[in-house]
Design a protein that fits this description.
The chain is an alpha+beta fold. It is built from four helices and 15 strands. It is globular, with a radius of gyration of 17 Å. It binds 2-amino-4-trifluoromethylsulfanyl-butyric acid and cobalt (II) ion.
Length: 254
């Protein structure tokens, strides 16, 4: 028995388009506030305001007890950083992850930015994560296998000399934040379930500057590299298409 991956009808895809657009707009509003001196709880406040404008709810607040609407993960933090009094500094690598629920449908999106400085190594880390997301998205087409999509993430990241985080995965998304299948950021081409038009996937490469494993902080959430190397995390909610993928959380940033 393989996994059973929900296929959305055209009407359901319209709902997913709406939740995806809302998620992208909330994330854009938060990213617009990222600057040196800003605290991460100010970003949480920006998310609260933007969610209200969208008439949407956070998909994260209260999820397994998570205490905030967004995740803000800085430098060696990979994912699931909790907003708080920390002030962003110039040169920080800041990942913001935003999940929303609109009319019962979920959207999930994340971007990583380098704050107020030209730091080639940090930019390269972020660009490689974005390239891995783009390469994986190009595989979200009817008839491809899930392993094809996972493998191109790993290949893109490792060819650049970085490593993928293996302890956390992307996921199907729709009526719930996490549906089947799990989407590891590594895999083998030609393996796994066949992708069908109407499947909706949250693809989320997590890229580690070095080869280090990750650990969870005593707060029970913040995931960070064990060796202090930096990480980038980008995510889109994507619909598998007949001939091309459709990005449902497009921020208009390429
Ligand atoms: N994008 C992440 C995920 O899909 C964010 C989850 S944060 C949580 O799991 F708080 F909701 F757990
Ligand atoms: Co996700």
């Amino acid at each position: 028995m393989g996994v059973s991956i929900p296929i959305k009808t055209d009407a359901e895809l319209d709902q997913m388009r709406a939740s995806g657009r809302a998620a992208a707009r909330v994330l854009a509003a938060v990213l617009a506030r990222v600057a040196p001196g800003v605290t991460t709880e100010e970003l949480e406040e920006a998310a609260r305001e933007a969610l209200e404008r969208e008439g949407a709810q956070s998909a994260f607040l209260g999820y397994r007890g998570y205490p905030a609407r967004i995740c803000v993960s800085i430098n060696d933090e990979v994912v699931h950083g909790i907003p708080g009094p920390r002030r962003i500094e110039a040169g920080d690598v800041v990942s913001v992850d935003c999940g929303v629920i609109l009319n019962g449908w979920y959207g999930d999106v994340a971007r990583t930015v380098v704050v107020g400085s030209v730091e080639p190594d940090a930019w390269r880390l972020v660009s490689v994560a974005e390239a891995a997301l783009a390469a994986a998205t190009a595989q979200a087409v009817e008839g491809r296998r899930l392993g094809d999509l996972c493998a191109v993430i790993q290949q893109t990241v490792e060819a650049a000399g970085f490593s993928v985080v293996r302890d956390f995965v992307g996921h199907g998304i729709g009526r719930a934040l996490h549906e089947e299948p799990q989407i590891p950021n590594f895999g083998k081409p030609g393996t796994g379930p066949v992708l069908r038009a109407g499947m909706t996937l949250a693809i989320e490469p997590m890229v580690n500057e070095r080869g280090s494993p990750v650990q969870v902080d005593p707060d029970g959430w913040t995931v960070r590299t064990c060796d202090g190397g930096r990480a980038a995390h980008v995510e889109n909610t994507v619909a598998v298409g007949r001939t091309a993928a459709e990005v449902l959380t497009d921020l208009g940033d390429g």
